[in-house]
Write a structure and sequence with these properties.
By secondary structure, this protein is an all-alpha fold. It has one domain. The protein has two helices and no strands. The longest helix has 69 residues.
């Protein structure tokens, strides 16, 4: 096959060139979109991490406050007397009775 004798119409050559430019434009646009979305995801992840840290810090502070309050209550309860588990058992029984009464009232 002799390439010098092949005749291509100008329309086919223009169509092939137009498709090549179209593919190049599409890939460039796709790359730009991916880059933009990647930076957006990075910002969102950073913001979420900041929010998560703030929530955890608040939870830690609340737990520290509860521990301090529990320790203070234990000091107030045990000042001058030995720890007696029967008092706790009685308090638990009273609370169980109150819960049962409330459940009966709600039914």
């Amino acid at each position: 096959m002799d390439l010098s004798n092949i005749k291509l119409s100008i329309g086919i050559v223009i169509a092939i060139i137009a498709q090549a430019f179209g593919i190049i434009w599409y890939v460039a646009q796709l790359d730009s979109t991916v880059g933009s979305l990647s930076s957006t995801v990075g910002v969102i992840q950073e913001e979420q991490t900041t929010v998560d840290i703030a929530v955890l810090q608040n939870d830690i502070e609340a737990l520290k406050d509860k521990i301090a309050m529990t320790q203070e209550m234990a000091r107030m309860y045990t000042v001058g007397k030995a720890f007696d588990a029967s008092d706790l058992e009685e308090a638990i029984d009273e609370l169980d009775e109150r819960v049962d009464d409330l459940e009966k009232d709600n039914d």
